[in-house]
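Need residues for this backbone.
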């Protein structure tokens, strides 16, 4: 196994506990960054998708671009 991947594999339980549950210095930073990004991306995708379906070109064209 490649050295970098071996280090990750050996420390995987710690990395998961630190990243997901918020122990350690980073205090759950992975999930704290991922959840808002997923929610905001989902909402933005809905609004852009609805904008592309709009009959008015001043809404549809910017949403398409």
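Answer:
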């Amino acid at each position: 196994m490649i050295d970098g991947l071996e280090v990750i594999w050996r420390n995987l339980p710690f990395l998961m506990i630190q990243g997901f549950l918020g122990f350690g210095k980073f205090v759950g930073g992975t999930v704290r960054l991922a959840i808002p990004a997923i929610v905001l991306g989902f909402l933005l995708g809905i609004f852009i998708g609805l904008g592309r379906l709009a009959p008015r070109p001043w809404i549809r064209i910017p949403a398409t671009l």
